[in-house]
Each structure stands twice: as structure tokens, then as C-alpha cells.
Amino acid sequence: MSTQTQPAVRILPRKLLIAFPRYLSRLASLFISLNIKPNTLSLIALLTGLGAGVLFFLERPLWAGILIVICGLFDILDGKVAVGSNQKSLFGAIFDSTLDRYSEFFIYLGLALHFRNHWALWLTFFTILGSTMVSYTRARAEGLGIECKMGLMQRAERMVFLSLGSIVGAAFQILNPVMIGVLAIIAVISNITAFQRAFYVKRIEKQRKLKKEVKSHGQN
């Protein structure tokens, strides 16, 4: 993997991204003591994402937002339990990432069904596309040997926007305007993030070529 320093710009504060998982350490320790497997937690995250999608379809956005929060928590906990219990594995990593994609898709599917008779249905499709491309560009870059975690709209940001949007929209009975705004933000910034990652790979490739040229001239 490339050891190049990546841009650290994120929508969520960096301190929050670092500090929040630490607060879950005790809960992770409890799961470890109960011998709960990290893959089990990944499955729970999938089921809560599926549940959130169903609740959007059933017009229960408040509970959908709460389940999205729980989904995000278990998405963090499975990794912490895997590390804390020394159960990290290649299969566990790809299993977790795969279920993350499915859980997020189910959430968007529920929103698409909610907006099935509304023009925002098309916006939901572009949001799904953007979210998928963020994950794809990271996986493709890492397949090329370049660590690529940069970008504004990563999974944590998407989950926060979706949960807050549904909870606030339901609480103030303005769900459609709020969720349309949330979907628009995710759609635009996630697609920008995908291109950020693509051009980041281009920049790393250019730097590598330049280093090879300098090294070649030095040897001559």
C-alpha cells in the first residue's frame, strides 16, 4: 500500500471520528466477554439497515432513523471486537464490507419506496450511485496498491446525514423536504468524493513515475 499522506478533510470533525469509537470500547469488551463473534455483529448491522428500509416504506421515519444509528454503531463494534478478540481475518474484512453495502442499499431502497410516487425517486437513484462509487473507487485503488480513504462523503457521514435527516424530519413533520435535502447533499458530495479518489490515484501515479525518473537519472 502507498504510504502517501492523504487529504484529511472530512465533513464530520476529526476529533469526533477518533473519540466516538473510543466510547464504544466498553461495549466491545462486553461482547468479547460474551464470546460474540464479530461476524454476528456485522449481521446485526445488516438486519438493522434492512429494518430501517422497511420502516421508511411503512412511513415510520423516526424509528428508521434510530435503526440507522444502531446500524452505524454495530458497524463500528464489529471491527473493534475483531481487533480486541484477535479474530481479524481476510474473510471477516470482506464479509463486513459486503454487508455494509447491502445494509446501505436497503436503507436507500426504503427511501425509494417512500418516494415511489415523487420526483425524488430519481434523486434516490443518484444517491445510491454516488454511495456505491465511493466504496468502489476505494476498493479499486487499494487493488492497485494505493490506500485511498480520503473524501468528504464517506460511510460515516452518509449514515449521520441519513439518521439525522429522518429523525429531524419526523420530529418536525417535514420529512420529505429534509430527506430530499439530505439525499441531494449525499448524491452530489459522494459523486465528488468518487472523482476525488480517482484523481488522487492519478496524482500518486504521477508521483511514482517522477520518483522512478529521478532514481533512473541518479543511477545514470
Helix fraction by DSSP (H/I, runs of at least 4): over 70%
β-strand percent reads under 5%
In the CATH hierarchy, what is the architecture at level 2?
Up-down Bundle
The topology string of helices and strands comes to: HHHHHHHH
Rg (C-alpha, Å): 19 Å
Q: How far apart, in Å, are the first and last alpha carbons? A: 28 Å
Q: SS-based structural class?
A: mainly alpha
Show unreliable segments: 1-5
E-strand count = 0
Shape assignment = globular
CATH topology: Four Helix Bundle (Hemerythrin (Met), subunit A)
On the 0-100 scale, what is the average pLDDT? 89
Which CATH class is shown?
Mainly Alpha
The number of distinct structural domains comes to: 1
How many individual helices? Answer: 8
Give a quick account of the main beta sheet: strands, pairing sense, barrel closure: none
Brief synopsis:
With 220 residues, the chain is mainly alpha-helical.
Structure description:
Mean pLDDT is 89; it is low at 1-5. This protein is mostly helical. Helix content is 79%, strand content 0%. It has eight helices and no strands. It has a single domain (23-214), classed as CDP-alcohol phosphotransferase transmembrane (TM) domain (Four Helix Bundle (Hemerythrin (Met), subunit A)), CATH 1.20.120.1760.
Descriptive keywords:
single chain, 220 residues, mainly alpha, Four Helix Bundle (Hemerythrin (Met), subunit A), 8 helices, disordered N terminus
Q: Topology of this structure?
A:
Blueprint: H1 14-23, H2 25-33, H3 38-57, H4 61-84, H5 90-114, H6 120-143, H7 155-171, H8 175-219
Helix pairs in contact: 2-4, 3-4, 3-5, 4-5, 4-7, 5-6, 6-8, 7-8
